[in-house]
């Protein structure tokens, strides 16, 4: 029987392990922490009984993942739960812009920009599965749906600042800008529309669900499926060098390129080592988890039904804030993503106490305290929020990196979406998962298609590993 070792038990590591085990490979997963999950862990971060997500929280790409959909993870306890409204974007002095799973409801709410929103997203939403089949694979491949890609390409390659001009109202531009800001890069750069287009299209196709009981349910389900196929997970195992990895036919690393460089050392070909050493990480996140008494007192009551709330004002303010972050400055009003997971999943609350998740985009290497700026942005659109706080837990970029070493400097997306790296990550190669060492692959969010609890980085890397096993004459199921 062929053997595999997977280092790291985030959703990509576990997705890779499951795919290999399904093909008859004897798999063991090594996890340094005492708990599996990486960025998809959940727990009581503020007061007993309230469930907070450590990092990954809303899962349009998870629900729409071409790989996860084939696994029927509901058999292992995963339950998706949807809020009434996927995302709200409040604005000063006017109604909030609202993103619904229903394209028609979103269009109706955007009034004058409704027809433009429909023209921008209707084909992307209806063709999302075809797009995902191509875009969630390595860039260098023969496309399965070339016409879909041809229609998507010009929109995706445009800077978000250019794409936003398509909309005529503050609501339309702000709603698009808040989702585009998930690119974690200044919005006047090429291809910064791509992330916003795909996340929005995924939302119109699958919604922005949460996992019942916390995002940890995703990795618990994957772990249960792996165990059913004979795979084993070992926690508390630190891999600091290749000597710490048991001998196996294939090795997959759910780690950042810099960590792979440290572990594999001189065994890496020089060109790969150079590329991993040059790999750029995204700006950081500064996260605050709140326990609040009662719901958030939004000025626009519609925001109370939204799972995600983007706090950044109008499009120009968001673009300005993202530009300042990439230039190393904390804006007075940073872009803040706030999560009200409890509106979709009541199991996370206890009586009148609710968990609230919020993080701000901050510069790489930020060592200050952004708590006041985050609370200020919430108070701006929900006066009286501060008075409802019962407890809070802060996580600086350094704290996030300690909690999960893949979050280098607080980078929660696995690498900067900048320049060529937005397309070719972690390096320019026909097989971006290959480390250049026979049978050793990188499968973290630093590989295509990037961030999100979709498991596709792991699946794609496992496909590369399976090809290697076949080419070397190993017997597979």
UniProtKB/TrEMBL annotation:
Pfam families: NAD_binding_8. InterPro entries: FAD/NAD-bd_sf. It comes from the Bacteria. Coiled coil: none annotated. This is NAD(P)/FAD-dependent oxidoreductase.
């Amino acid at each position: 029987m062929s053997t595999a070792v997977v280092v790291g038990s985030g959703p990509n590591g576990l997705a890779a392990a499951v795919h290999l085990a399904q093909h008859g490979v004897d798999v063991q997963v090594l996890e340094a922490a005492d708990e599996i999950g990486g960025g998809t862990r959940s727990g009581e971060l503020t007061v007993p009984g309230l469930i907070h997500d450590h990092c990954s929280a809303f899962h349009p790409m998870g629900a729409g993942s071409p790989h996860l959909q084939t696994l029927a993870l509901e058999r292992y306890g995963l339950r998706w739960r949807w809020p009434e409204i996927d995302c709200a974007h409040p604005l000063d002095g006017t109604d909030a812009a609202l993103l619904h799973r229903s394209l028609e409801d979103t269009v109706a709410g955007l009034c004058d920009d409704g027809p433009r929103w429909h023209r921008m997203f209707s084909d992307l939403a209806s063709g999302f599965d075809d797009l995902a089949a191509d875009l969630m694979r390595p860039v260098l491949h023969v496309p399965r749906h070339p016409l879909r890609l041809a229609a998507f390409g010009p929109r995706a390659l445009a800077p978000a600042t250019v794409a936003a001009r398509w909309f005529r109202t503050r609501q339309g531009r702000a709603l698009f800008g808040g989702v585009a800001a998930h690119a974690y890069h200044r919005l006047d750069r090429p291809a910064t529309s791509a992330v916003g287009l795909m996340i929005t299209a995924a939302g119109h196709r699958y919604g922005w669900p949460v996992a019942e009981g916390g995002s940890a349910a995703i990795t618990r389900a994957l772990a249960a499926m792996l165990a059913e196929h004979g795979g084993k997970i070992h926690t508390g195992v630190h891999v600091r060098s290749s000597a710490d990895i048991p001998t196996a036919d294939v090795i997959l690393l759910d780690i950042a390129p810099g960590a792979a460089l440290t572990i594999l050392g001189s065994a890496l070909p020089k060109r790969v080592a150079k590329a991993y050493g040059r790999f750029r990480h995204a700006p950081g996140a500064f996260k605050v988890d709140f326990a609040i008494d009662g719901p958030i007192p939004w000025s626009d009551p519609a925001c109370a039904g939204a799972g995600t709330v983007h706090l950044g004002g109008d499009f120009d303010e968001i673009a300005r804030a993202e530009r300042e972050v990439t230039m190393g400055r904390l804006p007075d009003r940073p872009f803040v993503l706030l999560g009200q997971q409890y509106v979709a999943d009541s199991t996370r609350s206890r009586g009148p106490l609710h968990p609230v998740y919020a993080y701000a985009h901050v510069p790489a290497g930020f060592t200050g305290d952004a708590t006041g700026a985050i609370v200020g942005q919430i108070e701006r659109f929900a006066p009286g929020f501060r008075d409802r706080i019962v407890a809070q837990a802060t996580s600086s970029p350094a704290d996030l990196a300690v909690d999960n070493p893949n979050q280098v400097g607080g980078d929660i997306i696995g690498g900067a979406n900048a320049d060529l790296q937005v397309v070719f990550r972690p390096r320019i190669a026909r097989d971006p998962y290959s480390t250049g060492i026979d049978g050793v692959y990188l499968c973290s969010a630093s590989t295509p298609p990037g961030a999100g609890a979709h498991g596709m980085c792991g699946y794609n890397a496992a496909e590369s590993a399976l090809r290697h096993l076949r080419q070397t004459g190993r017997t597979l199921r």
